[in-house]
Amino acid sequence: xxxxxxxxxxxxxxxxxxxxxxxxxxxxxxxxxxxxxxxxxxxxxxxxxxxxxxxxxxxxxxxxxxxxxxxxxxxxxxxxxxxxxxxxxxxxxxxxxxxxxxxxxxxxxxxxxxxxxxxxxxxxxxxxxxxxxxxxxxxxxxxxxxxxxxxxxxxxxxxxxxxxxxxxxxxxxxxxxxxxxxxxxxxxxxxxxxxxxxxxxxxxxxxxxxxxxxxxxxxxxxxxxxxxxxxxxxxxxxxxxxxxxxxxxxxxxxxxxxxxxxxxxxxxxxxxxxxxxxxxxxxxxxxxxxxxxxxxxxxxxxxxxxxxxxxxxxxxxxxxxxxxxxxxxxxxxxxxxxxxxxxxxxxxxxxxxxxxxxxxxxxxxxxxxxxxxxxxxxxxxxxxxxxxxxxxxxxxxxxxxxxxxxxxxxxxxxxxxxxx
Amino acid sequence: xxxxxxxxxxxxxxxxxxxxxxxxxxxxxxxxxxxxxxxxxxxxxxxxxxxxxxxxxxxxxxxxxxxxxxxxxxxxxxxxxxxxxxxxxxxxxxxxxxxxxxxxxxxxxxxxxxxxxxxxxxxxxxxxxxxxxxxxxxxxxxxxxxxxxxxxxxxxxxxxxxxxxxxxxxxxxxxxxxxxxxxxxxxxxxxxxxxxxxxxxxxxxxxxxxxxxxxxxxxxxxxxxxxxxxxxxxxxxxxxxxxxxxxxxxxx
Lengths: 420, 252
Fold this sequence. Notes:
The structure holds 2 protein chains of 2 kinds.
Chain A lengths: L8 H16 L7 H27 L7 H19 L10 H20 L4 H21 L1 H4 L5 E2 L16 H23 L2 H11 L1 H5 L5 H27 L1 E2 L6 H14 L6 H19 L3 H15 L3 H14 L3 H35 L3 E4 L2 E4 L3 H41 L1
Antiparallel strand pairs in A: 1-2, 3-4
Helix pairs in contact in A: 2-7, 2-10, 2-11, 2-12, 3-4, 3-10, 4-10, 7-10, 8-10, 11-12, 11-14, 12-13, 12-14, 15-16
Chain B lengths: L5 E10 L2 E11 L4 E5 L6 H8 L7 E6 L2 E2 L5 H6 L2 E3 L12 H10 L16 H13 L15 H14 L4 E5 L7 H14 L4 E5 L3 H7 L2 E6 L2 E6 L1 H6 L1 H14 L1
Parallel strand pairs in B: 3-8, 3-9, 6-7, 7-8
Antiparallel strand pairs in B: 1-2, 1-4, 4-5, 9-10
Helix pairs in contact in B: 3-4, 3-5, 4-5, 5-6
């Protein structure tokens, strides 16, 4: 028997498209904002995937993953400072590895404590360690930079071939290259004996023990490796912003990555990639449009948990399966029918939220939408919004039934075809 | 003379003040098929849990091929060639049948915690997993998620995982529990086939299965072994009839 090929057409296609998207995306716009958005997406992709090595693959819910990310960022920043002061020389290109090694080091140190137990115990210990590290970062201002954080200059010397990492486009490509390498590495890791045994430990640690594996060692190795990749992500963010503050260690940073993984879908390797993209866009784009972005953020999280508990990735996978079976077309009319009420309800909710925010926070009842000024003090506005939502909900109930009937029918025919 | 494959010496186990096993002495020779029978609550599963280090013993000693394994952890005992199945199906639910079995062969093939090798390129692991899947009759379900199997299929998979690592001493905890008559017959022939040449210790309620499979039988009643012998000897033993078989026959 010959082993299956490493590269087969479908795999080459998927990774090729991903790589092409990473390479082409920065050319779509010349604005610095676009580039910094893309850079942030790339960093968060690595961070979220490293988190999911624990949650999705090993079944370890960590409330303190920022420890590895933040410490990786700080260590990278110290290295950059040292390079700037000519203490030693490391090419800036390779600095993210320093962050990774920092994350790896703390993974070894803390993983020994955290991985003795799984389940809730692990989650609580990780929370405690996260808080502890965040708190002690302010006790050691020489290391963490204290309130002001650490900063330095990523442009060191002349650079090769004019690559100084001064311009944002250059740092984007540095981040993108590292991010792509990390994504490939993390995927490869999931396809190794350790990766599969981590899944086994996730499903049934006791059984894993009865096939010869020490679950604690498996968890430990996964924490250490996840620490490495989180550290690389931290290193990339240090180079991107040239400043690292204690916030990178905080519970918020630990929390956001949980959201990314859940929204994207922890059950699939690519889930956190989607989650990192969606949430970073929400964080950066929507937050620049409206002060209520956190509300939408919570709403989106709620919607995913309620209606797509497997995350966006599970919805994608399900529909790809239907598409391959050639039955997705049958669902399209029902989905299109559902679009109108969804838009009505969604638009109505957004209108209410925006108005309430304006009235409460800015003491102004004016809202400009597509060049039209809407005044929330007028009853007509509220009647219109209420009517839109009510109509939307009514339609949604009706259409929702059609959609679910249609889905049942599609699955029934699918099962029948499989049997014959 | 070689040491017995499995030996228990004066093993006691109590949970709090409740004594479950009292001075259990048991010796299973290499290649023997040994059944442990007894009424509900006699401590049969506890006995297995002590041997496989799921629980620690309160006192006494357990030996595997003459080596003391009393203080070892479950995975260490497994690496020394003892494997077990569970009464309540204990499989990797979100992995495919193939991956379930492949996980069970990885350690014995020396791949340990490797994270630098491509799993799908390890042809010896794949071949051994597929061979075991054939033997347990699950080839058609090879790529199905374990959680989607029927109960009988999951029981077969349980046996497959237990045996795939190549253990020489195999403990099966009620392998036919909850099965219909035809499923039981199927399971018995499966067990007979896959444990050929191995040392087998099984807990079983179904007397037909016990007397059909076992070379020797031990009877455990209220935490004590009251008799050990060939099926014929056990059938003839009056203490056993009184304590156990009598009631069992009355029910049957």
